[in-house]
Structure prediction request, 279 residues.
Amino acid sequence: MPKFLDSAALQLRVAKRLVPRRGASLRERFGRLDDRLVFVIGSPRSGTTFLAGAIGSLPGFVDLGEVAPVKAAVPELAAMAPDEAARHLRRILAVARRVGLVGTVRGVEQTPELAHLAAALPIAYPEARIVHIIRDGRDVVCSLLEKPWLRPQQARTDDAGVAYGSYARFWVESERREEFETAGDARRAAWAWRRYVTAARGAQSTAIELRYEELVADPTSVARKLGAHLDAPEDALAAALSCAHGTSVGRYRGDLSPEQLEDVLAESGDLLRELGYLT
Prediction:
């Protein structure tokens, strides 16, 4: 019963966020669910929130945000076989979209943790589109260090009831859990970036991969590629993407100490090189 009550409380959070939307018709609210969802995945602080919001602002789309019951379920779903995880995910999202009164519009889900269900997403929703956004891991570390999510001795939880702190999450390699919990904050943040990006890249065959830096530098070009992938209007998408700010690109140069940068490179240098951020 407590688990059911927790799930119900999380679904009520979804309703509170989505139901007040203005201008939605009764058909849009109560019609048949559109399974052409869009999943925006990637490491936290990589631009997932901005990108999902931009797509969700287009006609015929709606930004679902980070669906709390989905986020809460990911650790359990990640331990399942992809087909089983897909069934559970589909059921959770069906309830969330119904309680949120989101019917015939295309939902845009932006929970970063879904990167770890990359193999299950196309099974759950064969008509869905997956968008993986990647940002320089060094800049991601700077942004994560400003948040309490991975810091030691944090007694807080997020809106899905997931605890903050330096404890090893489900995505930490089992043989390195103790190492994760005793690592410095910068290394722990780089660790998270590496694991999320590596997991999300498992969906390469069904996903489009975007770079945050390219989005900032040339939103029109990104809108052209992304619009074709989503079957969405390129002009409206370009206008939404043009609101991105580039001031954070390369911030690691001034924000990370030499010791922190050394930790980041020790943990994620190979992936940074593979992605072309290091030469």
